[in-house]
Amino acid sequence: MTRNLRPLMLAVALLAAGPVAIAQDAATLRSRSLAASCAQCHGTDGHTPAGSAMRALAGMPAPYLAEQLLAFRSGVRPGSVMPQLAKGYSEVQIGQLAAYFAGVPAATQP
């Protein structure tokens, strides 16, 4: 019986959260999905492994990240992989990526 109530309870919880909360969750999921493409080089959620040659993106200021992605996309900033990757992002997606990584707390150093 409780198994049959779970979908109903979830629906009630989502309705109680309201459309704003649902939209924010959807936006966060879209941003996190975009950020997943960065994990191969920059680590999960922008946290690079210790000793990595790549820069950690977590906690960096959003304007700086957006500026760098736009520079890669336009060819102003050279790179081996990033210019090609950045060309695949719209300005909205670049803004989403920058905001996402800026909102992830930077790793603390031991």
Secondary structure: helix percent: 55-70%
Uncertain ranges: none
Main beta sheet, described? none
Query: CATH homologous superfamily?
Result: Cytochrome c-like domain
CATH class descriptor name:
Mainly Alpha
The CATH topology is Cytochrome Bc1 Complex, Chain D, domain 2
Number of domains: 1
Structural class: mainly alpha
For the secondary structure, the number of strands is 0
Question: What is the first-to-last residue Cα distance?
Answer: 50 Å
Number of H- or I-type helical stretches = 5
Strand content: under 5%
Radius of gyration of CA atoms, rounded to a whole number: 18 Å
The topology string of helices and strands comes to HHHHH
Q: How does CATH name the architecture?
A: Orthogonal Bundle
